Request: fold
Amino acid sequence: MTLTASQISIEEKLDQLAEVAIHVGLGLAPGQELVMTAPLDAVPLARKIAEHAYRAGASLVTTLYADDEATLLRYTYAPDAAFDKAAAWLYEGMGAAFKSGAARLAITGASPLLLSNEDPAKVSRANRAVSVAYRPALDLITRHEINWTIVASATPAWAVAIFPNDAPEEALAKLWDAIFATTRIGAGDPVVNWKAHDANLQKRAAFLNEKRYAALHYAGPGTDFRLGLADDHLWMGGGTTAGNGLYCIPNMPTEEVFTTPHKDRADGTVTASKPLSYQGIMIEGIQVRFEAGRIVEAHASKGEEVLSQLISTDDGARRLGEVALVPHSSPISQSGLTFLNTLFDENAASHIALGQAYTSCIKNGDKLTEEELAAKGANTSLIHVDWMIGSGELDIDGVTFTDAREPLMRKDEWV
Ligand code: ZN
Ligand code: ZN
Reply:
């Protein structure tokens, strides 16, 4: 008998989500160690994932829980000077674990509005301190040297932020439904479904790699933008074989094919199509103008101060490190929801990211020095922040090396 989606209990779906996270997302190897981070409210999923990890042969699963309420207490009571401090010892330890072969799994689900009433300057200083401390460990991830993935758990605070008009329990149930539907859980064998989806994304990336466009041109309401691609850029989508030889799909869900733009070749005006939730603060109505790769003008109807602090983090924070194409028909986009969480919202629409580039999107990027990567156009920064520019009204052309334009997406669907 085949079960339909509605006949599968939430416990079974949670079990399936944990199963695909370990076997498809992470590709955990027998004997491998796992470092997991999770919000306190994600304990049920974190335990299910630990169970599947051990059943897959994990040697040790270490879960670090984050407590949102305790984070707020810091903003209420800690002295002002404290906000440049990060737990450097913890991030050094995580880096040491990755170097000795551990895999990395993050469960996302914190309240997107957690820090919305806190002092943006303090939030930005605290984020910067974490970015600096985490940089060496994060490098191993952006270089895809280890297998890693991110999955989501519904949490009460996240649910009420998305569904403010529903009773808390109903909001939580709705968010779980949305997570399962967009993560391809509950309709047939999720492992089989994920492998087919991965193959599709790989095919799309292969097509773009064959085309070798020099640039992309975007046209839509409030957007007239030309973005050069890095020399020797590689389009990627779906899974990747990490430096440790293990195949992983770093984001669940994932709908994007993406590559590295040229840090000095962005020109024109771009308007965001969705609000950006940056570390607990909402930035809305973003419009930015680029000249020779650099943001020279940045506006937001809400949160402009946070935006201007964000792009002042370092020189690379004003330049682009990622360009991604996502069809408007993706399940996340079709859900009609704004999740206020980058893992979902970045997979709802075509997007660009300020800051650090993925060096794996440059041919042999993992073997090049930072200077060689920069010469090809790869950006470096402490930040990597995705923002959505795709909508049903955006057209994207591929620009060839002879400056001919070919339609690539119309109304944000593949031509
Ligand atoms: Zn992306
Ligand atoms: Zn990104």
